[in-house]
Here is the input.
Amino acid sequence: MSDTAKPHDLLGQIPASKGPAPVHLWNPPFCGDIDMRIARDGTWYYLGTPIGRKPMVKLFSSIIRRDGEDYFLVTPVEKVGIKVDDAPFVAVTLEVEGEGEQQVLRFTTQVDEVVEAGPEHPLRFEFDPVTEEPRPYLNVRGNLDALIHRNVFYQLVELALAAQHPDEQALGVWSQGRYFSIGACAAAF
Here is the structure.
């Protein structure tokens, strides 16, 4: 795709379907990078301007793929590089069903994708080595993650239980029968 190509050029190449496209099955030629970026807060930008049409953002989010550390929008006929500041999705709400080991944590992303944490969609918690600020993530699909919004992270900390191992002084949460350790730093919250 040339620098003069527009995002709507990609739209015409996306097969109509509900949910994410099977981008993992497509192997089109790389057509270059476009000036599209997903900010840390989940806002999509084109040529430095926020994309204000949520249906368009949702459509683009259905064709994103990560290969190694690089992100691409992929259609059956072309693949273009985009920039992602942190993660392509942001988990903006949390619904809790049940409690203890039977608890289910259901997240909704900024593009209205609903994901239940569990064995297929694990949670992971990283901490900035300099600031020690938590960076919690949820696997959305494949190797694409959602950064968990700060307010949602605080909800998780409120739900946290002590680790099941006596050697581990950490907190964590249950979802779909799996325990996800938040880490010892979370005890300070």
About this structure: The helical segments are 7-11, 54-61, 150-159.
